[in-house]
Structure formats: structure tokens, C-alpha cells
Amino acid sequence: MSSKSDKKVKKSLPNVELSASFVSKADKLRENKLYKEAVAIYLNAILLNRKDVNSYYGLGMCYKSLGNYAKAIKNLDIATELKSDFYEAYYELGICHLLDGIPCGAIKNFVRAIQINPENPNAILQLGIAHELCDEADMALMIYQKLIENSPNFIKAYEHKSTLLMKLERYNEASSVLMHLLKIQPDYSSAYLGIATCFDKTGKQTEAQRYYRKFLQKKPLDIQAQFAKTRLEKLKSVKKHCNYLSLV
Q: What are the tens digits of pLDDT across the range 57-84?
């Protein structure tokens, strides 16, 4: 319980300083995932200082965590208006648009984030995802490829490019991307499953079996292990049946 002297000190503080102290408290609450409690403190901070960019950013992030994307977007928008080079705010704006089911609205925010910080691959990846969700597959593939060229160790770029190629039934290209990924990270188990699936889809049964086995050797308890086992057994039975017919 605060004393009278403490209250006098608080009253004597300028609004800006008191607002900053509220923001600090709210930030700690947000870090501890106490989002509703943090919202109330951020709002108090904004009442004292409507120019504090950190209040709007923190408030937006709380609303994002609470699933209220409309309010998150509103507050993050204000943060970008107050600070035009605020990379994190633009990036999170894009993410909130994606989460809110409006990927085309995310694009301009990711573009702005990339302009501010072109070295960070995350915004570039999300830009590709946004174009993919807007049914602009060619643009998404181009972005993923550019990201691979500029950041060759950024695994997620290979993942998204190969997955999109498989959706487009361009299995030979997808397997090529995944083979390249394995050169960078040989223990990346999902790549073995992806390559096996690509070979399976294109009728290359021997190669498919080999990569299903490699996947199972690395991840015998994976959630996809049963699928790999089922396909492996199916391919074995098909091969045996074909061998039997050739002897008849």
C-alpha cells in the first residue's frame, strides 16, 4: 500500500514519465503472458501520453495474442504512424493481416518492413507466404527462390518453396529443392519424406522406397512415420506383384 508521500511523488511526475513507467509495467505483464492485465495498463499509459509509440505497439501485441486482430491492426497502425521506420510494427501488422484472413492486406506491410531491414529474411518469407495465399504462386516462388539465393542457410525458404511446388504437382522441381536442402542440412528428416513423396507421385518406386526408409531411420516415432510405413509396404507389394507377373 503506497504512502501519502509516494502519491505526492507520482502526482509530481510529468505525464510522459508516468506513462513510461506504466509501459514498463505493462511490458512485464505481456512478457508473462498476462495480456488482459497488460491491456489495461497500456491504455492508462496512452491516456497520459498519446504519442508514446511503445504503448500502441505493446497494446497491439496484446490484442494479437488475445486473437483480436482488428484491434491489433488498429494499434500497430498507429505505432507505424508515430514511427515510420518501426520494423517490428510493420512486420507484426503483416502477421496480423495474415492471421485475420486478409493476406493481400499484409503485402504492403511486409514490403515496408523489408525496405527498413532488407537483411532480415523473416519478412521476405512472410511476403512470399502472403502472395501464395493471394493465389499468386509465381510471385511466391520467385520470392522464395530469391530468399534461397540471398540466405542459402535459411531452411524455411526451401520448405515453403518445395511445399508450394508439390501443391502445384511440380514434383521434380520440388525434389530438386529438397535435395539441395539436404546438402545444407543432411539431418533434416522432413526433406527425406518430401523427396520420397515426390518420387512416389512420379512413379519412381525404387527411389521412393529408398527415401521412405531413410526417413523412418531418422524419425521412426514421427507423426508421419505410419504414413511412410504404409506407402513403403504398398510399394513393396506392387513390386512383388509385378515380379510375379513377369515370371508368368
A: 999 999 999 999 999 999 999 999 999 9
Supply angle C-alpha 52, 3, 20, rounded to 5.
Answer: 10
Instruction: Let me know if residue 161 belongs to a domain.
Output: no
Q: What are phi and psi of 126, to 5 degrees?
A: -65, -30
pLDDT of 11 over the 90 cut: no
**CATH number of the domain that residue 138 is part of:** 1.25.40.10
Within-domain flag for 6: no
CB neighbour burial string for 64-94, b if at least 16 within 10 angstroms, e if fewer: beeebbebbbebbbbbbebbeebbbbbbbbb
Q: Which domain holds residue 212?
A: 170-248
Number of folded domains that form the chain: 3
DSSP 46-61: HHH-TT-HHHHHHHHH
Q: State whether 143 and 102 are in the same domain.
A: yes
* pLDDT tens by residue, 140-166: 999 999 999 999 999 999 999 999 999
pTM flag (> 0.70): yes
Based on the fold, state whether residues 248 and 175 are members of the same structural domain: yes
The answer to whether residue 16 sits within a structural domain is yes
For residues 75 and 134, membership in a common domain is answered with no
Fill in the amino acid letter for 129. I
- Give the Å distances, CA to CA, from 26 to 22, 62, 163, 194: 6, 10, 40, 44
| Residue 186 forms part of a structural domain | yes
Pair 76, 89: CB distance under 8 Å = yes
3-state SS, residue 153: coil
* CB proximity list for 124: less than 8 A, separation 6 or greater: 110, 114, 143, 146, 147, 150
pLDDT tens digits along 181-212: 999 999 999 999 999 999 999 999 999 999 99
